[in-house]
Amino acid sequence: MCVFPARYRPRMQGEERRLTPERDRTVRALHESSGAASAATRIQNAPSVLKRELAGCGTGPAGAEKGVRTMRLLLILCAAVILAAVPAAAQTWTEAGDAGDLPATAQIPVGAGTLSQIDGTLLTGGDADMYCVHIPNPGVFVATTCGGTTVDTQLWLFDPTGLGVTHDDDDPGGCGLQSSVTGAFVPGPGNYLLAVSQYNWDPLDAAGALIWANSPFNVERAPDGPGAPGPVTGWGTSGFASGPYSIIITGALFCPGSPVRDATWGAIKGLYR
Ligand SMILES: [Ca+2]
Ligand SMILES: [Ca+2]
Ligand SMILES: [Ca+2]
To answer: DSSP string spanning 210-239?
Structure first.
């Protein structure tokens, strides 16, 4: 409990003066002040013995610093609560170097929460770019290059072992030569590998057989080629136009366990400031 040192009580009328003039001025200042912060400021020049004895009262420098630390902690906690209540913002992953073509070399977008777009480039001479995406609810999943590129793309979805799930060459909705896949053939929530390639750069099984047949072009299909039972182990046989692309995604998250950028902490600090 805080006990204000008796010998530093303000001098009462008629009371014997026992304080030095310096201590008397300090104690008067403390009692005339109505706020702890003001009091803390006022005792900055108080004698060291007085500082020690008043520290336990919460009005000394130690008490003031403790209060500031508590206030900072409360502000950070409030910011974290506000941030958690705000819906996850759309987030784009940009291909780092050249994303791998196979499950073992697929690129894992770095981040947390909603993954709403992937930007990259299809290289000349045949290129496939494969990315990990997490699909929590197949019923709302859509990935499309419609409006995201002028390249004649193909989209492919594999499970983590490389087995084919779904594919489209030309958008069934008629947007053009770009592609769209949905959760129609996705068996359940989980991590999947989303790949994009240019026409006619197709996934092959270990024997070099097509996992999907070449056509029909504008129909989303589960694997229907001679290599359908096996996982993808290579690509062929000829790629055409290259160029940049954006895959616009609905209903996907960053794969759990991927390294998280400091954006979340930065957002908290931004709110705190
Ligand atoms: Ca690429
Ligand atoms: Ca690639
Ligand atoms: Ca196409």
So the answer is: BSS-S--TTS-BS--STTTTSPP-EEEE--
